[in-house]
Amino acid sequence: LPMLFVLLLFMMTYLYGQSIGNIVSVEKVSKLMEMMLTMTRPYGLILGKIFAMACIGVMQMTIWIAGLVGGFFAGHVIAKEMIYPDYSNVLLEVFELLKNQDGSTAFSVPALAASFFTICIGFLFYCVLAGMIASFADKAENLASVMAYHQICVMIGYFAGLMLPMSENEALSTVARFIPITSVFMLPGDLVAGNI
Question: Which three-class secondary structure string do you get for the chain?
């Protein structure tokens, strides 16, 4: 499940980062930005674009997670009630085993809620980063080369969040949990697994 969170966050930041970059750079070329800046401040204009795309991304992520959880429990009920009455879901038993350890918060409702909240905040962080980086593109043709810096940050965070929890180097994992680019990917999985 922590790896699934890392993959979900990677896909969302990668895809929506490109969309934010497109939105920010397209209006620079079309002179629409100059007209809009007479009515509002630049920070408010860019913040509105970033926040709107982040809200769309969070809603999409919420629908995906609700569909996944709803499908899991609906499948559990259908399998137990209609197909095989002696059905026992192994995954639910593993969750219970992890929850019943001494002092463990793994897979508890507060841990899942905190994990979802950190995914949303991390996604907003990467959306703001994409908007900041995309604002350096002076033309739409230069957007791809500028957005490469955002993609590099996303890739570093993704691979750190995927590989460092499995490594035996605890010092490097601890340091990576305090760096914003990597902690965004590591924190949700740590919360769900009960490591934090």
Answer: CHHHHHHHHHHHHHHHHHHHHHHHHHHHHCCHHHHHHCCCCHHHHHHHHHHHHHHHHHHHHHHHHHHHHHHHHHHHHHHHHHHCCCCCCHHHHHHHHHHCCCCCCCCCHHHHHHHHHHHHHHHHHHHHHHHHHHCCCCCHHHHHHHHHHHHHHHHHHHHHHHHHHHCCCHHHHHHHCCCHHHHHHHHHHHHHHCCC
pLDDT, tens digit (0-9, with 9 covering 90-100), for 123-144: 999 999 998 898 888 777 788 8
